[in-house]
Amino acid sequence: MESNLLLVTGPYKYNGVPLKRVNAAYVLPTNTKLNLNAEVAKNVKDDLFKKVKIDRKKEEDFFEDNEKKKARITEDKKKLQTEVDTEVKKAVDAVPMMKEYLRNRFALKNGDKPHLMKF
């Protein structure tokens, strides 16, 4: 992306990860590869991830109800999420056991050395 961040997605249906930008320092590279079309993420721009201004002047406004939370997710974001996810799901379904691999939770414990791990 233009901001030198990586674009990450679940797909949302498999592990609940939406489209988001992540610094490369927080990503563990693996040998696992998927064949994706390069045109999949061409419509994703940094402007999509700008924060929505929330007006919280009263104490009651601190705890948002679900309707206001849902209103923060724009239709453009929803449309782009489904476009990217359909292409990623096609690639994931083509590789055996990839869906299960993506659904598993990954965590490091004390003493784990991620730079020595092989995936």
Architecture blueprint of SSEs:
Blueprint: E1 6-8, H1 12-15, E2 20-22, H2 66-72, H3 75-94, H4 98-103
Antiparallel strand pairs: 1-2
As laid out across the biggest beta sheet, the strand order is 1-2
Please count the helical segments.
Answer: 4
* Pattern of helices and strands: EHEHHH
Q: Assign the structural class, choosing from mainly alpha, mainly beta, alpha/beta, alpha+beta, or little secondary structure.
A: mainly alpha
Please give the radius of gyration in angstroms: 17 Å
Shape, per Cα inertia axes:
globular
Biggest sheet layout: 2 strands, antiparallel
Number of structurally distinct domains? 1
Overall number of strands: 2
Low-pLDDT residue spans: none
Question: Alpha-carbon distance between the termini?
Answer: 25 Å
Query: What is the arithmetic mean of pLDDT?
Result: 80
Tell me the β content. Answer: 5-15%
Classify the helix fraction into a percent range. Answer: 25-40%
Give a quick set of tags describing it.
single chain; 119 residues; two-stranded antiparallel ribbon
Description:
- With 119 residues, the chain is mostly helical.
- It has one domain (6-116).
- It has four helices and two strands, in the order βαβααα.
- It has helices at residues 12-15, 66-72, 75-94, 98-103, and strands at 6-8, 20-22.
- It has a two-stranded antiparallel sheet with strand order 1-2.
- The chain is globular, with a radius of gyration of 17 Å.
- The chain starts with 5 loop residues before the first strand and ends in a 16-residue tail after the last helix.
- The mean pLDDT is 80.
